[in-house]
Amino acid sequence: MAIRNPVEWGVDHWRGWSHAVGTAGRAAYRREEDAASLLPAVRRIGIADLGEALKRGIDDFMACRTDVIFLAIVYPVAGLILSQVIFGRDLLHLLFPLVSGFALLGPFAAVGLYAMSRRREEGEAVSWSDAFRVTGSPSFGGVMALGLVLTAVFLLWLLAAWGIHAATLGPEPPASLGTLLDAVFTTRAGWTMLVVGMGVGFLFALLVLTISVVSFPLLIDRRASVGTAIRVSARAVALNPVPMAAWGLVVAGALVAGTLPLFVGLIVVMPVLGHATWHLYRRVLPRGPIDRPFGRV
């Protein structure tokens, strides 16, 4: 056996490594192409589909209202607790960001409602306990991972809102709610805060709408990865920009309205929107030959 010099040895090994990396890259690219080809087909929808989704959402709520109201009590309770924390810790300037932030967490908070609508769609009896069966689905890990993403977005929104307040009205918290409202609506800095805050809030809402409008129902309904669910959701928004924008406004407006009377309205608003989101998902992604539903959840 001939003893090769270090240069020859290095060249040979470099060729081997290059071949291995190239092979792995081509394989990964093929897997990505195969995964893309298996993505479910997204349908075009119109404004009328939003009305139909809301109608069916209300129908689901009325059919399961006793069980759903029992579950939905947690929403106003959580809102009231957070409000008390804010009032008690000089965080009044975060009150509106907190209220509006419900729209960012709504898709994750409604996962149990999607599962209930799915069972009712299949003609099965539905009770409040069915909302917790989602924990046994094969994609539950993906549901939790995407939920953590939305939680991170919510916290970033609160941080951004705090920064906008500090840059306009100053870092000191307001002495009272009346003082805050007076500063917001009667000063130039307050109007600047409103305009900038609404613009930044719109960007956060657009991000959440894009990545989650159908991703949570997809993860509950089919075997899919988080990446696949997000790509399908983004595709649905890109293909239906006007209806999805209208849906985002409906959801945001309804959630904000539901929080106004001491968050009590969320007992009705959250279940209706949750059930309606499931039916919107069904209109955007009807069942097809590539579906691989994992049965009961």
Automatic annotation (TrEMBL):
Pfam families, per the entry: DUF2189
InterPro entries listed in its UniProt record: DUF2189
Lineage: superkingdom: Bacteria
The keyword Membrane is annotated on this UniProt entry: yes
Stretches that traverse the bilayer: 68-88, 94-115, 143-169, 189-220, 232-256, 262-281
Thylakoid listed as a keyword: no
UniProt KW keywords: Membrane, Transmembrane, Transmembrane helix
Record protein name field: DUF2189 domain-containing protein
